[in-house]
Amino acid sequence: MPTVSVSVSSPGVIHVTPDPVGVSGSNATLTFNLLSSGYSFASSNAIVVPEPASQFPNASVTVSATQATLLDVNSDSNTYKYVVHLVRNSDNQPLSLDPAIENGK
Fold first, then answer.
1. What is the CATH number of domain 3-103?
2. pTM, full prediction
3. pLDDT tens-digit profile of 28-59?
4. Least C-beta-crowded within 10 Å: which of 26, 59, 63, 85?
5. Is the bond preceding residue 11 a cis peptide, omega within 30 degrees?
6. Which residues 6+ apart lie within 8 Å of 97 measured at CB?
7. Beta strand pairing status for 13-17 and 61-64?
8. Which residues, in sequence order, are bridge partners of residue 29?
């Protein structure tokens, strides 16, 4: 299952590795691990794929402050933008980034 590392650099810029995320195999669970201290995944909708719902039928699950998962049906070969939602712990300031997922890779 694909694992994505999420980090934050000064001044609050989110980075994901790899980008894009290559996904192979059906019904793949993508795991996002937050490596930077001082930040947390949003408690709901930490990872959002705006479209299409058929490839990402369930909302992401925030497993902990530093881990979130997302189910990818992966039944096509398209690339999808997604949004990572983090919160800065010191002041609850939201941060977001729009990287990509490549199905069928």
1. 2.60.40.420
2. 0.94
3. 999 999 999 999 999 999 999 987 779 999 99
4. 26
5. yes
6. 13, 14, 15, 16, 83, 84
7. unpaired
8. 71
